[in-house]
Every structure is written in structure tokens, then in C-alpha cells.
């Protein structure tokens, strides 16, 4: 699994008079620290208008505020709910309140973090080893702060898939299952690359615990949230990504952007049901 986490710049925090070993864990702590950092002349939390990673950030906040992206039957988009609008407004307000520049370029938030120009960076666990390669960067990583009422963190995952065979072979099927089981039991090296093993026994091992950053983000496992298992979902998600983009670029109000996107998404969901059949 590869979830989002909160990377924090210890130098920026220290220069703003904050404890560099105590990253924010709540909405109130996040807001308070941003004000201190802003007072020291730094915009502390840059909002990316792109899927990597602003779009993942927004999905997380929808869930944290108690909302859902789609209804249970995947017949309509629900991210334009009050919870979804509140989540997007929170991000837009980071810009309006001077904690983020407007119109942040792709990966500019990442570059700024490494140049000590912002304090808090929401990005994936895949950045752990990249940051380790930067000897001048003083950083740490923590579970995402709870901005809404619920604990939630966006995640994706790598998966093995066994396809139906035109000429089934039971021996090959069993061999494939044994291979996947072996990979799962020996996934520590994979974890070293910056991932969280799905197998409980590996996550609970001392060797995994010694991977400090990965083990820290693994504390989020009980409340990780994934994209819904809907056929054709990535095509539908592009509509959401466009709406998020328009809102954080201050082109449209959050509710307007999300309402319009939900209408387009509903049509795509219906088209997909006609094309692929009902979700089981």
C-alpha cells in the first residue's frame, strides 16, 4: 500500500519558534502552526492544483469531513455534498489566507519543501527514500493531521491479478497462488523501497518496525481509504480532478465546481453501467 503522509520541514518549524519534533495532528494545531510560520515570512502549506498531490489531498479531506466520493451503488457522485464542499473550501482558504501561493506549478510544492520555503507537504510514502537522498533537508514524516471529524488517509496499492484462462491449468493456478503468497511473506525488501506491506505478519515484524518512516505511516492502516472499485472509475475521476483544479486556481467557487463535476460524473457512471454492466 502507498498512502499519503505529512512531511514536515524541521528547519522551517524551528525558525518559526515551533518544536520541530512535534508536527500538527489536529486542525487546530495545523492552523496555529501555519500562523506562526506565516509570521516568520513563510507560506507553510502549498496547495497543488494537480492530482499529484492536491487531488489525493482533497479526497482525503472529503473522507475526513465524513463525506463519500460516490454513493454505495456507484450510481452517482456525492463529493458535492456539504462535506465535500467544506473540504474543498478548507483548501481554498489556505490560499486566500496566505498560507499558499496561488497557481502552484506541478511539483512546485515539493521543490519548495526541499528548499525550506514551506513547512508541511502532503505527499505519498514513495517520497521517503527521495528525501533521504537530500542531505541538506531536515525533515520528518507523520500520519496526516485530522482536519475533519474522522480519521482518513488516501491510499492506493499494488495488486496481483489472476485472469481467467482460455484453457485452465490447475497446476499453473496453484503455482501462481504460491508465488503471490511467497511475495507477500517476503515483502520487506519491497517495503524498503517506500511501501507498506499488506500482510500483517510483515508489518508486525521487528524488521519492518526498524523502517522508521514506513512504520510511522503504517499507523494509518486502520483508516486508509482507497478509490472505489468501480469499472471505468479512472475516467470518471478525471472529472473530479478538473473540478478540484478549477476551485484551487480560484476560477470557480468550490460548490459550483463540484456540482458541475458531479453532474458530468453521473452521466459517465450511467454510460459505464451500460457499457460494463452493474457493479457487483
Question: What's the short story on this structure?
Answer:
The chain is an alpha+beta fold.
Textual characterization of the structure:
The protein is of the alpha+beta class. The protein folds into two domains: 2-156 and 224-276, Periplasmic binding protein-like II (D-Maltodextrin-Binding Protein, domain 2), CATH 3.40.190.10; 170-219, no CATH class. Helices cover 48% and strands 8% of the residues. The protein has 13 helices and five strands. Strands 1, 2, 3, 4 and 5 form a five-stranded mixed β-sheet that branches. Helix 3 (51-64) packs across helix 4 (82-96), helix 3 (51-64) packs across helix 12 and helix 12 (233-248) runs antiparallel to helix 13 (254-276). The two termini are 24 Å apart.
Number of helices: 13
Question: What fraction strand?
Answer: 5-15%
Structural class: alpha+beta
Oligomer kind: single chain
Please specify the SSE layout and strand pairing:
Blueprint: E1 2-9, H1 10-15, H2 27-39, H3 51-64, H4 82-96, H5 108-114, E2 120-124, H6 128-132, E3 139-142, E4 153-156, H7 170-185, H8 188-192, H9 200-203, H10 206-209, H11 212-218, E5 224-225, H12 233-248, H13 254-276
Parallel strand pairs: 4-5
Antiparallel strand pairs: 1-2, 1-3, 1-4
Helix pairs in contact: 3-4, 3-12, 12-13
Amino acid at each position: 500500500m502507498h498512502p499519503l503522509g505529512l512531511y514536515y520541514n524541521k528547519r522551517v518549524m524551528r525558525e518559526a519558534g515551533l518544536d520541530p519534533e512535534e508536527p500538527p495532528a489536529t486542525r487546530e494545531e495545523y492552523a496555529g502552526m501555519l500562523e506562526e510560520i506565516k509570521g516568520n515570512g513563510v507560506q507553510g502549506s502549498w496547495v497543488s492544483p494537480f492530482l499529484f498531490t492536491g487531488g489525493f489531498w482533497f479526497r482525503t479531506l472529503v473522507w475526513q469531513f465524513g463525506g463519500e466520493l460516490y454513493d454505495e451503488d456507484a450510481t452517482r457522485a456525492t463529493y458535492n455534498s456539504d462535506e465535500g464542499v467544506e473540504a474543498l473550501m478548507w483548501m481554498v482558504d489556505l490560499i486566500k489566507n496566505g498560507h499558499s501561493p496561488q497557481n502552484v506549478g506541478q511539483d512546485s510544492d515539493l521543490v519548495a519543501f526541499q528548499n525550506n520555503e514551506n513547512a508541511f507537504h502532503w505527499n505519498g510514502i514513495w517520497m521517503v527514500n527521495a528525501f533521504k537522498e537530500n542531505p541538506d533537508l531536515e525533515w520528518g514524516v507523520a500520519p496526516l493531521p485530522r482536519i475533519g471529524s474522522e480519521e482518513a488517509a488516501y491510499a492506493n496499492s499494488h495488486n496481483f491479478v489472476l485472469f481467467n484462462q482460455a484453457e485452465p491449468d490447475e497446476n499453473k493456478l496453484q503455482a501462481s497462488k504460491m508465488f503471490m503468497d511467497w511475495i507477500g511473506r517476503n515483502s520487506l525488501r519491497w517495503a524498503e523501497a517506500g511501501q507498506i506491506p499488506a500482510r500483517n505478519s510483515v508489518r508486525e515484524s521487528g524488521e519492518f518496525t526498524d523502517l522508521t518512516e514506513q512504520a510511522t505511516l503504517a499507523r494509518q492502516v486502520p483508516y486508509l481509504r482507497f478509490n472505489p472499485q468501480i469499472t471505468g472509475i479512472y475516467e470518471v475521476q478525471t472529472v473530479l480532478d478538473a473540478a478540484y483544479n478549477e476551485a484551487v486556481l480560484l476560477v470557480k467557487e468550490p460548490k459550483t465546481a463540484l456540482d458541475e463535476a458531479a453532474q458530468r460524473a453521473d452521466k459517465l457512471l450511467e454510460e459505464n453501467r451500460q457499457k460494463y454492466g452493474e457493479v457487483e
